[in-house]
């Protein structure tokens, strides 16, 4: 039982971290940014080569992945999505989906489809409730929770964070306060990309690095955003962790073959009974 | 202070403002009146930089604002209060006010503005930590006026401040505008409440179907027979 819960927390942390970036972007742009799944893949390769080819220490590799993710998302917004801002024909969404497949295929083209493995950043195990848990897995949970706290503080306490929230709540009025909406978009996308990059860096040693590694985490993260509620950080964290634990328990006690189906069953149930998500604001 | 020259504005190719010219001199309150849909809000949105005119010029403090994006207009000393009491609903009153001072970097200037707003609307001071979305309509109107004042503007544009408010609150809002005017703020007011806005302003313009159909001293407009029959239903 405990082992399933801890594994679920690890998995759920990753869902929550990708979902956090997607949620921030979704709240202001109305785009479910599928390209984050591709950013996640490329960032994982950035980590792999930073460590294996460049011999960089793991913590620098994580920073490199965050930077790579931030730059990719920043550019996608600045040079692509921005052209179609305000359009209601879903062209931005199609562009995001295209980017996701493009990046995954870029990875196949550059590095072939074979999966690559990394050593754990921190060796060793801790004993929790009688279960041995690798430090690598614990690190994932801790880093994700710390990031959630930091981003929450940034949004609630800093001037820039408040400007971002204002723009999210009323994008038409925010400019009249002197807030540059283009800057807000750049910051949000860079943050989202960095979070996807960090997520990839954290899991790279636990799961393998391969071109299609982004697909399931992306879909689960999208489910987590909807479950937790658009605009709700706490909702995203709880929904992410909750989904991870449920999947892990489901795989353990019911059947592992259905592991990737549970998320979507829950999604449908929540959408029917509480379409704004479990913690969503009334606005949505 | 503000001079509008031959302004033409349209949405997606449909022209709604036709060759509108007017001016607001320093120290004035100028009212724009007219029926719903006459184009009053469009004019304010265009001045504030949210809409780009098809042609014409907007000169503020001696320089043209054409091509200036909305977020740069506020630092020129102009604040705009749009119609509909657009508070940031999921933020506290205090955060809303702080956002009004987004362009102000000096902390002392922000607290000076804050004091001034609290003096004008003591209710906002009492309720600083309340979520703005839970405010009543009147309180939200006070908040958006207060938020606009936080940037210490010389010129204030306000769109339909009395819409949907009960008469006692309307009086309170208008009293506040008169106090601000006495403090030296020039005001451009857009209203469907013809009576109220012509009473408070010095000069007025009547907008009909996107064109200025009448202009003059507010007290003359108030006594104008056409205006009486159209807007007050008296003949």
Helices and strands, with pairings:
The complex is a heterodimer of chains A (284) and B (235).
Chain A: H1 2-29, H2 35-52, H3 58-80, H4 91-111, E1 125-128, E2 131-134, H5 135-157, H6 159-169, H7 181-203, H8 215-228, H9 233-254, H10 262-273
Antiparallel strand pairs in A: 1-2
Chain B: E1 2-11, E2 14-24, E3 29-33, H1 40-47, E4 55-60, E5 63-64, H2 70-73, E6 78-81, H3 93-100, H4 107-120, H5 122-126, H6 137-149, E7 155-159, H7 167-182, E8 186-191, H8 194-200, E9 203-208, E10 211-217, H9 218-223, H10 225-232
Parallel strand pairs in B: 3-8, 3-9, 6-7, 7-8
Antiparallel strand pairs in B: 1-2, 1-4, 4-5, 9-10
Task: Write up this protein.
The complex is a heterodimer of chains A (284) and B (235). With 284 residues, chain A is mainly alpha-helical. Chain A has helices at residues 2-29, 35-52, 58-80, 91-111, 135-157, 159-169, 181-203, 215-228, 233-254, 262-273, and strands spanning 125-128, 131-134. Chain A has one domain. Helix content of chain A is 69%, strand content 3%. In chain A, a hairpin with a 2-residue loop joins strand 1 and strand 2 (131-134). Chain A is globular and about 55 Å long. In chain B, a hairpin with a 2-residue loop joins strand 4 and strand 5. The model of chain B has no long low-confidence stretch (mean pLDDT 92). Chain B has 235 residues and is α/β, with parallel strands linked by helices. Chain B has a six-stranded mixed sheet with strand order 6-7-8-3-9-10, sandwiched between helices. In chain B, strands 2-1-4-5 form a four-stranded antiparallel sheet, with helices on one face. Chain B starts with a strand and ends with a helix. Helix content of chain B is 38%, strand content 26%. Chain B folds into two domains: 23-51 and 67-77 and 153-235, Rossmann fold, CATH 3.40.50.300; 85-152, no CATH class.
Question: What structural keywords apply?
Answer:
heterodimer, A: about 280 residues, mainly alpha, 10 helices, 2 strands, about 70% helix, about 5% strand, globular, B: about 240 residues, alpha/beta, Rossmann fold, six-stranded mixed β-sheet, four-stranded antiparallel β-sheet, about 40% helix, about 25% strand
């Amino acid at each position: 039982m405990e082992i399933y819960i801890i594994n679920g927390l690890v998995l759920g942390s990753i869902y929550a971290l990708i979902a956090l970036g997607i949620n921030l972007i979704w709240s202001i742009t109305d785009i479910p940014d599928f390209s984050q799944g591709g950013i996640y893949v490329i960032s994982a390769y950035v980590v792999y080569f930073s460590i294996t080819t460049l011999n960089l220490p793991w913590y620098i590799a994580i920073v490199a992945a965050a930077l790579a993710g931030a730059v990719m998302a920043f550019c996608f917004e600045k040079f692509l999505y921005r052209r179609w801002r305000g359009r209601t024909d879903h062209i931005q969404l199609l562009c995001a989906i295209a980017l996701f497949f493009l990046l995954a295929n870029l990875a196949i083209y550059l590095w072939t489809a074979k999966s690559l493995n990394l050593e754990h950043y921190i060796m060793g195990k801790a004993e929790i409730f009688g279960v041995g848990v690798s430090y690598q897995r614990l690190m994932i949970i801790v880093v994700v929770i710390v990031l959630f706290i930091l981003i929450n503080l940034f949004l609630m306490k800093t001037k820039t964070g408040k400007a971002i929230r204002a723009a999210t709540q009323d994008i038409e009025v925010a400019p009249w306060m002197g807030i540059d909406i283009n800057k807000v978009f750049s910051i949000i996308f860079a943050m989202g990309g960095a979070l996807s990059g960090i997520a990839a860096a954290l899991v790279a040693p636990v799961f393998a690095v391969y071109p299609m590694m982004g697909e399931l985490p992306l879909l689960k993260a999208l489910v987590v955003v909807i479950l937790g509620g658009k605009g709700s950080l706490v909702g995203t964290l709880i929904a992410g962790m909750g989904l991870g634990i449920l999947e892990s328990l489901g795989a353990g006690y019911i059947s592992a073959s259905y592991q990737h189906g549970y998320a979507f069953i829950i999604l449908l149930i929540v959408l029917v009974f509480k379409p704004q998500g479990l913690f969503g604001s009334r606005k949505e | 202070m503000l001079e509008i020259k031959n302004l033409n504005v349209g949405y997606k190719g449909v022209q709604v403002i036709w060759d509108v010219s007017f001016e607001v001199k320093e120290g004035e309150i100028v009212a724009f009146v007219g029926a719903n849909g006459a184009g009053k809000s469009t004019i304010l949105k265009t001045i504030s930089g949210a809409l780009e005119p098809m042609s014409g010029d907007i000169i503020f403090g001696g320089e043209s604002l054409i091509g200036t994006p909305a977020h740069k207009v506020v630092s020129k000393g102009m604040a705009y209060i749009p119609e509909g009491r657009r508070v940031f609903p999921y933020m506290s009153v205090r955060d809303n006010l702080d956002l009004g001072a987004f362009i102000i970097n000096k902390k002392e200037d922000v607290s000076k503005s804050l004091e001034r707003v609290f003096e004008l609307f003591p209710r906002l001071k009492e309720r600083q930590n309340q979520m703005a979305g839970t405010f009543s309509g009147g309180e939200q109107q006070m908040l958006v006026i207060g938020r606009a004042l936080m940037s210490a503007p010389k010129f204030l544009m306000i769109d339909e401040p009395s819409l949907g408010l009960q008469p006692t609150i309307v009086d309170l809002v208008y009293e506040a505008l008169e106090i601000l005017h006495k403090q030296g703020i020039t005001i451009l007011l857009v209203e469907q409440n013809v009576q109220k806005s012509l009473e408070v302003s010095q000069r007025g313009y009547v907008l009909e179907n996107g064109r200025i159909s009448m202009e003059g001293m507010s007290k003359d407009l108030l006594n104008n027979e056409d205006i009486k029959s159209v807007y007050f239903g008296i003949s």
